[in-house]
Amino acid sequence: MNNFTFYSPTEFVFGKGTENQVNELVTKYGATKVLIVYGGGSVVRNALLTRIEESLNHQSVPYVTLGGIQPNPIDTKVYEGIDLCRHENVDFILAVGGGSVIDTAKAIATGVPYNGDFWDFYIQKAVVKSALNLGVVLTIPAAGSEGSGNSVITKSDTLQKLSIRVPELLRPRFAIMNPELTYTLPPYQTASGIADIMAHIMERYFNNTAETEVTDRLCEGLLKAIITEAPKVIKEPDNYGARANIMWSGMIAHNGICGVGCDEDWASHFMEHEVSAVYNVTHGAGLAVIFPAWMTWMASHHVEKIAQFAHRVWDIPESDNKKDMALQAVTYLKNFFISIGLPVTFEQLGIPDPDINLLVEKLHQNKGEYVGAYVRLSKKETLEIYKLAL
Ligand code: NZQ
Ligand code: ZN
């Protein structure tokens, strides 16, 4: 196991009715004026936004709002939020939504105290040294941004989708997680969220680090729990217990605990980010296409951990033919994704004729000559993997 620092100071407030505590929580973390950030309208339609505004009014916490954050969020809304915060003297940001809303809130939080373009952080031209505090009311388990120090933003003119990771400054101060708020999710968003959660675990699990039994078993147990709970939330969207388990799994999958001490991979995520940047597809659905293709390629090139995944997660009997075990696991994983309504090929994702050369070019322009750690992949290999997803 490698050396590591694990610092996860977010206060998670989980369960029914917990959004009613938002006023106490923003006050506890020192807010004097709040920017509420939200998405394309789901929180308006289900009246969550109204309840949050009422809660803040009750405590006399002044606020302003910024709505209209789109999935695969773009830089223009970040600039709008930075201007609004400066103009209104906002000192706390409350994200009400999913990864797109939270990531926009985080980007705004970095940009307000910075005397330059917030995009500098995403292209590694500058390092985040301070950020406004932020809190979250989560409405979709998927990106795990409620517990992570990451933010992913797309620059609208160049379609660069890039991320920053600043755990010490960008982990939310608090995250309110009421599983009931996820009942209104469209099935495709629920399923895409599940694929993203599983991918966050698998990106960490597929590594070459020795002596990681605790982390491995944590990942395997979590994946098994998700495989059990996922069909329940698809069949019964208002099954509280299943929604609660999926919601909590989304946090654990991505707050870092599943990767402590390991060399994480992330090639599939970076490959998917190019797909959602260029074709604006749902990130989790894109992963349901890319990750099995990555695993298929690995079955022929570096099979060990894929075979372990086959045996321990899918109960495929151990055999000397590890490639066969790995390929069976890919089939099980694909069938699982299909069973919850997800695509597993580019065509099913709605991209019958993807410009794979463009994806490869952009990927290596953004991420360098090699991506991934389980096997370091150059242009030749990432091209082969994209082709396996056709
Ligand atoms: O915009 P509204 O109207 O709210 O609708 C949203 C959106 O259309 C809808 N939705 C959310 N909660 C709902 C709901 N609809 C009904 N009822 C509810 N309770 O769901 C749609 C997707 O929302 P979004 O925020 O985009 O989902 P997600 O959480 O999957 O976030 C995706 C973004 O996060 C990034 C992805 O790349 C993508 O840009 N990621 C962020 C990460 C991080 N910060 O750590 C890590 C991830 O790997 C990921 O890359
Ligand atoms: Zn993801």
Main features:
about 400 residues; alpha/beta; Rossmann fold; Dehydroquinate synthase-like, alpha domain; 2 domains; 6-stranded parallel β-sheet; two-stranded antiparallel sheet; 16 helices; about 50% helix; about 10% strand; binds 5,6-dihydroxy-NADP; binds zinc ion
Q: Which band does the percent of strand residues land in?
A: 5-15%
| Number of strand segments | 8
Query: In which order are the strands of the major sheet placed?
Result: 1-8-5-4-2-3
Question: Low-confidence stretches at least 5 residues in length (pLDDT < 50)?
Answer: none
Distance between the termini: 37 Å
Q: Count of DSSP helices?
A: 16
Largest beta sheet, briefly?
6 strands, parallel
Q: What's the domain count?
A: 2
Outline:
The chain has 390 residues and is α/β, with parallel strands linked by helices. The protein contains 16 helices and eight strands.
Please provide a written account of the structure:
- The chain has helices spanning 22-28, 42-45, 48-58, 75-88, 99-111, 119-122, 167-170, 187-205, 213-235, 240-254, 267-279, 283-301, 304-314, 322-339, 356-367, 379-388, and strands at 11-14, 34-38, 63-66, 92-97, 133-138, 150-155, 160-165, 174-177.
- With 390 residues, the protein is an alpha/beta fold.
- The chain folds into two domains: 11-181, 3-Layer(aba) Sandwich (Rossmann fold); 185-388, Dehydroquinate synthase-like - alpha domain (Dehydroquinate synthase-like, alpha domain, Up-down Bundle).
- The strands form two sheets. The chain has a six-stranded parallel beta sheet with strand order 1-8-5-4-2-3, sandwiched between helices. A two-stranded antiparallel sheet has the order 6-7.
- Strand 6 (150-155) and strand 7 (160-165) form a beta hairpin.
- The radius of gyration is 20 Å and the shape is globular.
- The relative contact order is 0.11.
- 5,6-dihydroxy-NADP is lined by residues 39-43, 71-73, 97-101, 103, 139-140, 142-145, 148, 150-152, 181-182, 184-185, 189, 193, 196, 254, 269, 283-284.
